[in-house]
């Protein structure tokens, strides 16, 4: 079987994915880099012409952002507005969301480095 353009990923696509994962990784701490990466991903998806491998990574990163942003923002607002044990509980939720996002980034970048697709990009779990 011969490889088509959809079965392989260009070096430019691979480096773009690695850069976007790095921005997501930093976004857990700085927030703004995650937002920048999300906007870049949406632009790349809209323009099209990506390989199937890159598209699986873009879908995966969008799903990660759409979980992390509301969960993180909600936990942060509730943390600020509450006192005592509830504030601690929301801090734990925020930490759990950050760890989940970091694990997804690490797994995604390891697959991107090896030019492999995300097996189930629509899932909320970690790829196997």
What do these coordinates show?
It is a single chain. With 128 residues, this protein is an all-alpha fold. The chain has one domain (11-113). The protein has helices spanning 11-30, 32-47, 52-81, 84-113. The two termini are 25 Å apart. The model is unreliable at 1-5 (pLDDT under 50).
What gap, in angstroms, lies between the N and C termini?
A: 25 Å
Low-confidence stretches: 1-5
Report the portion of residues in β strands.
under 5%
Secondary-structure-based class equals: mainly alpha
Mean pLDDT: 85
Based on CA atoms alone, the radius of gyration comes out at 16 Å
- The count of strands amounts to 0
| Assembly classification | single chain
Return the domain count. Answer: 1
Query: In which range does the helix fraction lie?
Result: over 70%
Treating each run of at least 4 consecutive H or I residues as one helix, how many helices?
4
Order of helices and strands: HHHH
Instruction: Give the biggest sheet.
Output: none
Assign an overall shape: elongated
Keywords: Membrane, Transmembrane, Transmembrane helix
Protein name: Transmembrane protein
Transmembrane segments: 20-42, 62-81, 87-106
Short note summarizing the structure:
The protein has four helices and no strands.
């Amino acid at each position: 079987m011969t490889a088509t353009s959809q079965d392989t990923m260009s070096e430019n696509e691979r480096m773009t994915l690695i850069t976007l994962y790095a921005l997501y990784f930093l976004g857990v701490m700085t927030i703004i880099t995650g937002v920048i990466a999300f906007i870049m991903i949406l632009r790349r998806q809209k323009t099209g012409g990506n390989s199937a491998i890159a598209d699986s990574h873009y879908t995966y990163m969008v799903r990660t952002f759409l979980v992390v942003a509301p969960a993180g923002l909600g936990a942060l607002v509730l943390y600020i507005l509450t006192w005592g044990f509830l504030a601690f509980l929301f801090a734990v939720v925020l930490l759990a969301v950050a760890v989940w996002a970091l694990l997804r980034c690490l797994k995604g970048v390891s697959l991107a480095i090896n030019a492999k697709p995300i097996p189930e990009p629509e899932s909320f779990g970690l790829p196997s």
